[in-house]
Amino acid sequence: MCYHVKQTRKDREYLESSFDADLRFESIPTYFHVNGFQRPSMMIITQEEPNIIQLGTWSVAPPQCADMPQYWKEKGGSVLNTRDDSLFTFKAAEWKTEAMLTQKCIMIVSGFYEPHKVDSTSYPYLLHRPDFEAFGLCGYYTQQETGPTFSIVNMQANDLLSKVHNAAKRMPMTIDPDEKENYFELNTEEDLKKEFATRYCIQLDHRAVDRSVLNSRIDSNTESIIQEVHHPIITEF
Length: 237
Description:
The chain has 237 residues and is of the alpha+beta class. 19% of the residues lie in helices and 33% in strands. The chain is globular.
């Protein structure tokens, strides 16, 4: 599951040209590491307004939810990530299925973190593009009085991510900036299921990082957290 991300790109012109969309706010949220359970404000592009980069809360809630904190508390990590194999089944609420068809979104990041498990110990890895270029994590959103809330879609991992995220063998649905329209045009259950089945992931590099990423009691939103370390217990993937 992808609960931890990095977003350090703050060049307005770069972001707008990369995603062919206009930023509609002044302060660009940046994080060396942020945990989704912090309910962070993240940059997203929505299917409804594909040429605008706006802010949304990473923790989806039903449309016009009266008590989002309570809903988030009850649902746990499922408000951050949604499994592809739960969508279009009885496991998913009807509003989630509808949102996946008509209210898709892309969260802009420059990396995400996944744990590699050895016995009972987890060792985090940062997945990123060369030079930490921005890319997208695919999901869906709902509108609230305070603005959009959203969830990321995760699917069965490809070969690389299966080795990194070796316990759950899952990965977020990723996308290159110039492919946003292709994602938004997946407007039928059949098209989306075909896309899920490809287990597509953009080309990513990986590096081991400090284990404090996985410790919520430690402030790991620091530049040092993205520095590569060596986990001696793990061989190279």
